[in-house]
Amino acid sequence: MIWNQSFLNDTLITYSFARQAAIAGRFQRMQRPQGEMYTMMPQFDALFYRWNMDDAQANIYGYAGFGGSRFLQDTSWAAISGIEADAESRRLYVSGKFQTFFFKDNDRVYQSQFRIGAAPYLAQFNELSSWLILSVQHEPQLTREWIVTPMLRMFYKNVLWEIGSSFKGDWMINGMVHF
Amino acid sequence: MKKIYIFLYLSVLFLSQPFALAEQKQVRVAVKGLVCSLCGQGLEQKFKDVPQVSNVKVEFGVENPTTKKKENVILFSLEEGKILTQEQIEKIVKDAGYALSNIEGL
To answer: Taking CB atoms and an 8 Å limit, are B42 and A178 in contact across chains?
Structure first.
């Protein structure tokens, strides 16, 4: 998965080795008021619980990782932990995510995100799916604090892409390929 | 006379092939939680990997002929004589992260 905004890039290569667990390599660039920060780490993902309903699905995930960071000419350790929940039917989608980066000297970066979306039409399995989504991000330690982004999500077979622009003009381009 | 028997035997053998191929069970598996084509690719592939299964197709919003309820289903062909049990199907569905609702055609 790749996530791209002017103040934030996040890249994850994830391998699901079990139904409820995956490992990932994660690289993130964050633009903080003091300067650019980079983190790189392996991450462990766990699906805590999944509700499978007739025409809907809901999930709670958790993840944690430990690796390195580069910030203000200093290389040090970094860690992450986060929790994520989502629920979707073929018509509606809602998700929430909260994660914290931990750095030396009690430095923290908190990131939270809430999304709500609707599909304008019901796509069949092998058709192009489209979603209109409103994304709200809270990034108190970055150069943007609140980012509200209306966006379009589309996916076809195993490829997903998202494009949007916040009300303040910050672009967003994300993508994912599922093998 | 012997030639006639051989001719008849070969004729029956030849003519029986298309009917044997046509004798496939159409199986319909309704799956709970299958709402997204991106996520459902894995489940479709797991059924395609089963040797006795062919013509795997996923369809959303298909009416159940018995209950008339709309369901998200996997349809596939199972050759006559080949065995795929309900437990095996349930395991495939569960391993892909979904839940089995019902099976028709086994």
So the answer is: yes
